[in-house]
Design a protein that fits this description.
single chain, 408 residues, alpha+beta, 3 domains, 7-stranded mixed beta sheet, 5-stranded mixed beta sheet, 27 strands, 20% helix, elongated, binds zinc ion
């Protein structure tokens, strides 16, 4: 459990309170914040000497507002006018914070921490107190007055010097606490999630092998990303035709959706659902439905009465290359609904060339171990010792490798 010393040391302060703030003491419900000026002062801070410098420079000068004689501040004001125009510190009237209703930890700059009442008050003051830029030797004292379990009045006394003159002011903001559920509690709860991802295939069931290769890309993705407490999966399992997952982060769901289409083609449909309203803001849940095409890269497909190899994915559909000659074409997901896989990449074989001439090669048929002959693919380089073959329409067919007219 972080004590306030730790927090003061590790979390940079907001606004004018520089990172050089150090905590002086903590007694009962009081705390003291002391600002160390060594970082920004031009010389060792000494208000009196600065003031006399101002006097020397002014040589017969007078207050630019009321005409009073020196001593004057560096802005050429007499003390009375400087005080009229200067506010040492500002603070909002109310400060909002969130506390987990289950474990009482507080939301602190995107994370959650257990802190006692004074430590959290100290931190909120630090985040909300804005000091005059010229202020030096600043000390902040505060006490906490509980009004009810969700409302505290903070009494904050600030003192410091500006141009060598001592200033002090005080604030009494309300620190209001609203209920939330912290990330670890949400995770434990199990029924919390922001997004549902549905893995499906176009017009058929995904088989187990496909499911596991789709699912494994999520683990790869999580390993490659910065850890985030919201990147959890609260529930997953098989459903008719595919697999469903519930996860803690919409952005994770979207990133995974992009990875899926990049790796396996297909499309992603997003539909948000409003699940409630929290403090006037609609809370939505995202359903992201991924549809994997019925074909994969390297599969031989029949499309518009020709044989093609699925080459790569574009946003709107695959790029296909022809089996029997150099030709490439793009097809849309919709066009491809009329296609069929005639020999999946996983069913294709790599065989050794036993003999070859300019148009054909002999190889051992992997199904019956007899020597057979197959026509060489159009992009054969005349040298290759292996061929990729597929059993299509009752016979082995050698498949082109690159579709670019060469093997390299
Ligand atoms: Zn004046
Ligand atoms: Zn909690």
């Amino acid at each position: 459990m972080p004590c306030c010393h730790l927090c003061l040391d590790t979390i940079p302060s907001v606004g004018f309170l520089s990172s050089l703030i150090s905590k002086g003491r903590s007694t009962g419900s009081q705390s003291l914040i002391t600002r160390n000026d060594s970082k920004r002062s031009r010389k060792p801070s000494n208000g009196a000497s600065e003031r006399s410098t101002g006097n020397r420079m002014s040589g017969g000068a007078f207050c630019i507002t009321c005409g009073a004689d020196p001593p004057l501040s560096t802005g050429r004001l007499c003390e009375a006018c400087l005080r009229k125009r200067t506010i040492l510190s500002k603070m909002p009237d109310t400060i909002q914070q969130m506390r987990c209703a289950k474990c009482d930890s507080f939301e602190i700059r995107g994370g959650w921490s257990s802190m006692d009442r004074d430590a959290i008050a100290d931190m909120r003051i630090r985040d909300n107190l804005v000091l005059d830029e010229r202020a030096k030797k600043v000390t902040v004292d505060f006490s906490v007055q509980e009004i009810d379990p969700r409302t505290n009045r903070l009494h904050v006394d600030v003192s410091g010097t500006i141009d060598g003159y001592k200033f002090r002011d005080s604030h009494s903001p309300l620190l209001q606490t609203s209920n939330a559920v912290c990330t670890p509690c949400a995770r434990k709860d199990g029924d919390y999630f922001e997004a549902i991802v549905q893995l499906r295939s176009a017009g058929r069931k995904l088989n187990e092998k496909e499911l596991s290769s789709l699912r494994s890309t999520l683990d790869e993705l999580l390993q490659s990303m910065e850890p985030n407490p919201m990147f959890f999966i609260s529930k997953e399992g098989p459903v008719t035709g595919g697999w469903d997952l519930q996860m803690g982060s919409k952005s994770l769901a979207r990133t995974w959706g992009r990875k899926l289409t990049k790796s396996f083609g297909g499309s992603v449909k997003e539909s948000p659902t409003v699940i409630g309203v929290n403090e006037g803001v609609e809370v939505t849940r995202l359903t992201l439905s991924y549809r994997k095409p019925a074909y994969s890269i390297g599969d031989a497909v029949r499309f518009k009465k020709s044989l093609w190899i699925v080459d790569s994915w574009q946003k709107n559909g695959p790029i296909l290359r022809k089996v029997d000659r150099f030709e490439r074409t793009g097809a849309t997901w919709r066009d491809m609904e009329a296609s069929s896989v005639v020999c999946a990449r996983s069913e294709q074989r790599i065989v050794q060339v036993l003999n070859r001439d300019s148009s054909a090669a002999e190889f051992m048929d992997p199904s019956d171990y007899k020597v057979s002959t197959v026509a060489l693919p159009y992009d054969d380089d005349g040298l290759s010792e292996e061929l990729r073959i597929g059993f299509i329409d009752g016979m082995w067919l050698a498949l082109p490798l690159s579709g670019k007219g060469g093997r390299k």
